[in-house]
Write a structure and sequence with these properties.
alpha+beta; five-stranded mixed sheet; two-stranded antiparallel sheet; 9 strands; RT_dom; Reverse transcriptase domain-containing protein
Length: 250
């Protein structure tokens, strides 16, 4: 379970033992876990109450309109108590965007895949006058534009979501790149996608995502900070971390 708020909370605001706080720029996330959703909600509510009192003391206020609450798992939220901030109830959401990654209730990352695919398609369509095979721009320049403006959309934060998405979602992501490269090169439709990648010397999205994931997790294990060392490493004692793979599923 997590709750994200649209204000930056400094570390001077104390946390209760059962919850954790993540800070990045102007985003703050409170999160906790428990097999019993009711207990998890009580923990978060206590943390919110402590935070709001601290903010009131400093004459600050949480932006309730930008606050999102989400419960991960299969538990239905229709009968669960809602988090309240300044007597305002926060409805349970089925998905939440955090640092550019869309997290859905089941953590299948399907919503995030759809988001990056649609965004990449819009960018590809906007650049079509420059990228299509009839463009007067040299093909090497067209491929460079594709690598600069479209591939980063598909690869953003790949180490966070790449190991967890399904094979069918990977095929959808790869299709965005394959269609774009066919448009640039005018390669006949009877040639395979592997041939296109070989001709253009551009790796598949999954290959680059796998490489970035492996590099990041290897760096994590050499970190000086224990909480970073644990990222991406399965913990047999933790049912949540147990499913977090070090490498991609084959």
């Amino acid at each position: 379970m997590l709750i994200t708020v649209g204000n930056r909370i400094t570390q001077q605001c104390n946390n209760i033992h059962e919850t954790s706080t993540s800070l990045f720029a102007d985003d703050t996330m409170f999160h906790t876990s428990n097999k019993n959703a009711t207990y998890a909600i009580l923990r978060l509510q206590r943390q919110i109450n402590i935070t709001t009192r601290w903010l009131t003391q400093w004459r600050l206020r949480l932006n309730v309109s930008k606050t999102v609450a989400i419960l991960f798992g299969t538990k239905a939220t229709t009968k669960l108590k809602k988090i309240t901030i300044h007597n305002t109830e926060i409805n349970w959401s089925r998905d939440a965007k955090y640092l550019g990654v869309t997290l859905n209730k089941s953590l299948s990352l399907h919503n995030h895949v759809e988001d990056i695919i649609n965004k990449a398609k819009r960018s590809r369509a906007a650049l079509y006058p420059l990228l299509n095979s009839k463009s007067h721009i040299p093909i090497n320049a067209r491929l460079s534009l594709f690598k600069i403006y479209i591939r980063p959309i598909l690869l953003y934060a790949a180490p966070a979501w790449g190991p967890k998405i399904s094979r069918s979602n990977w095929k959808k992501i790869e299709a965005v790149q394959n269609v774009g490269l066919r448009s640039i090169t005018a390669i006949p439709p009877y040639q395979s996608n592997k041939s296109i990648l070989a001709i253009t010397k551009i790796p598949s999205i999954e290959e680059d995502a796998r490489k970035a994931t492996t590099i990041m997790f290897n760096k994590n294990t050499r970190s000086l900070y224990p909480h970073i060392q644990k990222l991406g490493v399965p913990d047999p004692e933790d049912p949540i971390c147990k499913s977090r793979p070090f490498y991609f599923k084959k």
